[in-house]
Amino acid sequence: MNQIAKLVIVGAGGLGREVLAMVRACNLVSPEAEVLGFLDSNPSLAGTQIAGVPVLGSDDWCKANKTENLRYVCAIGNPMARSIVTCKLLDMGCQFSTIVHPGVHLPDSVRCGVGTVIMAGTEFTTDSTVGSHVIIYLNCSITHDVVVKDFCLIASGCNLSGGSILETGVELGTGACVLPQRRVGAWSVIGAGAVVNKDIPSNSTAVGVPCRIIAQRP
Predict the structure, then answer these.
(1) Catalytic one among 101, 105, 133, 144?
(2) Is 144 a catalytic residue?
């Protein structure tokens, strides 16, 4: 990158502050981005500061502020809400940055999509694929041939075994484990500490060890 990108974090909540801390950690290793500010739909936050960074306004701010080196990252935890906001920004022509903490082990054989956030302590082994606008929290283990599709959220301490697949928008709770070759369907939620030992259909909520489906949405 010829010049340091101006980065806007979409979402000024806890995840937004975590992303800000990640960017600052990355810049200590190699300066790559200057955080210009937060965007948030809460009008009471506009004009305030969070962790020393201004809240610029709502996502409509993007319409009036377009420069070549301006980048965004969506720090909204809920996968569906993140997908809606991200698609709106993409329709405005916004470009996104991928943020990977320097404490992540990310081999060259792992492909990672744009707009994705990977936090400290996460370990990849080899030959996995992570889609776009995915959030991977602290200290996760992702082994060979895993596929994580767009807009997923993987909470801290999760383990994805070889060949497992998370379809679009899956949310894994803290400490969940997906066993080898298992597939979790799109927009499903897996509870904290659950063990996925069978395929889970789309739009399901599953909990327990081994996990069982407790709800399904249309």
Answers:
(1) 144
(2) yes
